[in-house]
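Priority: medium. Attachment 1 of 2:
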């Protein structure tokens, strides 16, 4: 027994010594690793933590850096087109509002006011930049950048990870490169119907992300009313699609499937929100008029004649190519035209997604239904509208671009990924970015009629009248050192304009107009009309394409 006990004690001693030696060896190894005596050994857990922290900061940084970079890029793109009087008049309105005329008393606007959308934006830019022709370009770049952000967020939907990234790149990629010339004029210059897509997309984003609660229809209704005050086209792009889509969903559930009405209260509330938004917007505009604020000219009749439909269809088709940056008509064969043809991919994706949404209407989500309905209704309204002229009237259906981009991303991203087409689409996106760079590389253009503005300033002619497309841009470009007010011919008589103008401009007690500017050959307005209104001029000057006539009297006293 004694021997056995001794053996057990010896074994325990040996085991303890071995454990102690092992512990000392581990301490030594740890010390050596920390001191680097055994070489650098990667700390994988720490690297993973560092990568996670990097990703946590990278995503918010990209949401700041990318929009800022896009803004400056689109600012440069916008500056490749000269500012005109249509954009300048909004600068004058914002300037007037900054000086206390918040309701724009005495102003006659066009058939759209943009009072609650672009005008507040113009006020902020004008507050910083002053009365400057660059205001138009800065505001256009802000609007387009905001639109791209909303398009990306709405395209993402509830997707995460790779699918979310693919969706956002598809949607933003389709819109990232506006076409030089008319494309920039329609999408990135003066305020127009594209800007009113911002509150509409925000409304659809809320409907897409928020749960079905009572406050969602309220928020949607408020945003639609806000947009309708600025632009009645929202009835076509948003309200009518909302009522139609939710009406179809109600009919299918309550009438066909005999579900209780309470199960579809959400759709009914959205219909009510859209209809109430129309009434609220009309009431606000009427209240503004009753308080002496601005008045809006009525919208032109909708229905076109049958004989005009072929021309409208041609403009519609070319306009779609223009919106998606693919209007290659009239271009020579070469690298630029190849880039234009590459943009056809975006148009094809948007058309494909619209077809999928219509064909599988009952199986797509509410927002996709709204976007598809908005595209189809907008195209139909454009085709039937009586005032379709040249390609620049494409702005009336500008909402098709962001709607189509979002729809393509939401409905086709999974199909394109499964078909292994993402590498090909990456090449297309690189082509779009090259196209954007080529457009941005063009030299900035001065505002319209800069030659006239310089001449009038040098000759100390401070207040006069002229054609409507001359006056406002001259006034803004000169910083109001020269004020050129628009006039029009009414029944062969020269009269003050009631389109994007202010009544006080024509008050002879406040202003002394002593010159008239005509443009073109033959001049417009005609020389005979001007002489019939004011008599023969004292002096006549030819300034390039302009004819400047001066008198030694106040012409406003004889203007109708």
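Attachment 2 of 2:
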């Amino acid at each position: 027994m004694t021997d056995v006990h001794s053996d057990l004690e010896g074994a325990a001693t040996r085991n303890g010594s071995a454990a102690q030696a092992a512990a000392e060896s581990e301490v030594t190894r740890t010390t050596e690793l920390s001191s680097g005596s055994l070489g650098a050994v990667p700390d994988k857990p720490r690297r993973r933590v560092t990568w996670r922290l990097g990703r946590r900061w990278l995503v918010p940084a990209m949401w700041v850096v990318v929009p800022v970079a896009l803004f400056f890029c689109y600012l440069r793109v916008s500056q490749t087109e000269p500012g005109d009087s249509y954009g300048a008049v909004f600068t004058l309105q914002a300037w007037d509002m900054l000086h206390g005329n918040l309701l724009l008393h005495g102003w006659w606007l066009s058939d759209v006011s943009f009072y609650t959308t672009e005008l507040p934006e113009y006020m902020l830019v004008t507050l910083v930049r002053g009365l400057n022709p660059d205001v138009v370009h800065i505001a256009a770049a802000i609007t387009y950048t905001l639109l791209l952000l909303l398009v990306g967020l709405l395209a993402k939907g509830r997707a995460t990870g790779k699918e979310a990234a693919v969706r956002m790149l598809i949607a933003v990629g389709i819109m990232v490169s506006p076409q030089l010339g008319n494309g920039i004029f329609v999408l990135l210059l003066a305020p127009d119907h594209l800007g009113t897509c911002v509150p509409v997309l925000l409304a659809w984003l809320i409907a897409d992300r928020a749960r079905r609660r009572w406050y969602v229809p309220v928020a949607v209704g408020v945003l639609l009313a806000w947009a309708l005050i600025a632009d009645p086209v929202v009835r076509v792009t948003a309200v009518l699609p909302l009522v139609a889509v939710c009406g179809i969903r109600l009919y299918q559930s309550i009438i066909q499937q005999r579900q209780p009405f309470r199960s579809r209260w959400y759709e009914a509330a959205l219909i009510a929100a859209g209809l109430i938004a129309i009434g609220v917007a009309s009431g606000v505009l009427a209240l503004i008029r009753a308080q002496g604020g601005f008045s809006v000219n009525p919208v032109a009749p909708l229905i076109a004649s049958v004989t005009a439909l072929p021309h409208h269809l041609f403009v519609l088709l070319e306009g779609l190519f223009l919106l998606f940056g693919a209007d290659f008509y009239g271009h020579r064969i070469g690298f630029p035209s190849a880039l234009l043809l590459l943009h056809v991919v975006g148009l094809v994706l948007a058309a494909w997604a619209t077809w999928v949404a219509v064909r599988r209407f009952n199986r797509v989500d509410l927002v996709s239904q709204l976007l598809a309905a908005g595209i189809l209704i907008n195209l139909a309204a454009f085709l039937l509208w009586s005032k379709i002229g040249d390609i620049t009237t494409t702005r009336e259906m500008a909402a098709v671009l962001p709607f189509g981009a979002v729809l393509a991303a939401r409905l086709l991203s999974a199909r394109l990924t499964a078909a292994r087409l993402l590498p090909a689409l990456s090449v297309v996106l690189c082509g779009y970015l090259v196209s954007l760079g080529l457009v941005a590389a063009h030299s900035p253009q001065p505002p319209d009629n800069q030659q006239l503005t310089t001449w009038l300033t040098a000759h100390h002619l401070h207040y006069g009248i002229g054609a409507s497309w001359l006056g406002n841009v001259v006034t803004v470009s000169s910083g109001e050192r020269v004020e050129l007010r628009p006039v029009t011919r009414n029944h062969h008589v020269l009269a003050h304009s009631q389109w994007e103008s202010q009544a006080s401009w024509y008050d002879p007690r406040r202003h002394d107009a002593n010159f008239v500017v005509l443009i073109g050959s033959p001049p417009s307005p005609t020389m005979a009309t001007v002489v019939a209104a004011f008599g023969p001029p004292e002096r006549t000057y030819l300034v390039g394409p302009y004819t400047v006539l001066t008198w030694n009297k106040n012409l406003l006293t004889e203007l109708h």
